[in-house]
């Protein structure tokens, strides 16, 4: 009988994603982005994923990896994202909801780094973790569609777009790990 676990899931990545989701819930209905239907879809999906991941981490917490890299912890990523958001955000006002928008993008971009670092160190990747990170890559495709839609509406947030582009490029690293596993005889998606 196969046992389920979240071994290989970086807890710091999940903390960063939960903080980004909380930030998104605070700002998403207070910006011009509410004019796009994808914004509502993104809010619903990111909140659902945060709740599901929270429940999975609580349920399978005894199966997680215990030794994360010190510099890749959430208490390093979150302050860096906050400082970046304070100085590089859409708009020209210092205190605005746009700082939360920028914080969300920056913390999500940095959050994937601990997960990729952990997956590179592991020999085998658990099925649940493999599916989760594959869905993260798929979410990058949806996010890029979101940016295309914003571009055609006349919005040009270069700093935020670059943060999402970095996040997408980090997702490509996971695709590389996937293809490497496939080339060495593994399956593309591990069986649950």
Automatic annotation (TrEMBL):
Listed GO MF terms: ER retention sequence binding
GO cellular component terms attached to this protein's record: endoplasmic reticulum membrane
Protein origin, superkingdom: Eukaryota
Localization of this protein: Endoplasmic reticulum membrane
Pfam families: ER_lumen_recept
Family: Belongs to the ERD2 family.
PANTHER family found in the cross-reference section: ER LUMEN PROTEIN RETAINING RECEPTOR (PTHR10585)
Protein transport listed as a keyword: yes
Organism: Chromera velia CCMP2878
BP-aspect Gene Ontology terms: protein retention in ER lumen; protein transport; vesicle-mediated transport
Ranges annotated as spanning the membrane: 38-58, 70-89, 95-119, 131-152, 158-179
Membrane topology label: Multi-pass membrane protein
Keyword terms: Endoplasmic reticulum, ER-Golgi transport, Membrane, Protein transport, Receptor, Transmembrane, Transmembrane helix, Transport
Protein's recorded name: ER lumen protein-retaining receptor
């Amino acid at each position: 009988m196969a046992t389920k676990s979240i071994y290989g899931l970086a807890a710091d990545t999940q903390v960063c994603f939960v903080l980004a989701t909380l930030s998104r819930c605070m700002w998403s209905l207070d910006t011009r982005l509410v004019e796009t239907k994808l914004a509502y879809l993104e809010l619903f999906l990111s909140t659902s994923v945060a709740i599901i991941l929270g429940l999975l981490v609580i349920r399978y917490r005894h199966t997680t990896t215990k030794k994360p890299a010190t510099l890749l912890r959430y208490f390093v990523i979150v302050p860096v994202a906050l400082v970046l958001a304070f100085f590089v955000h859409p708009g020209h006002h210092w205190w605005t909801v746009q700082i939360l928008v920028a914080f969300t993008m920056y913390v999500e971009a940095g959050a994937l780094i601990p997960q990729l670092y952990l997956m590179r160190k592991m020999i085998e990747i658990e099925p649940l973790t493999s599916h989760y990170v594959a869905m993260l890559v798929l979410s990058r495709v949806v996010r890029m569609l979101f940016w295309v839609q914003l571009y055609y509406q006349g919005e040009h947030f270069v700093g935020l777009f670059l943060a999402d582009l970095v996040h997408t490029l980090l997702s490509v690293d996971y695709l590389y790990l996937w293809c490497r596993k496939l080339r060495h005889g593994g399956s593309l998606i591990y069986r649950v």
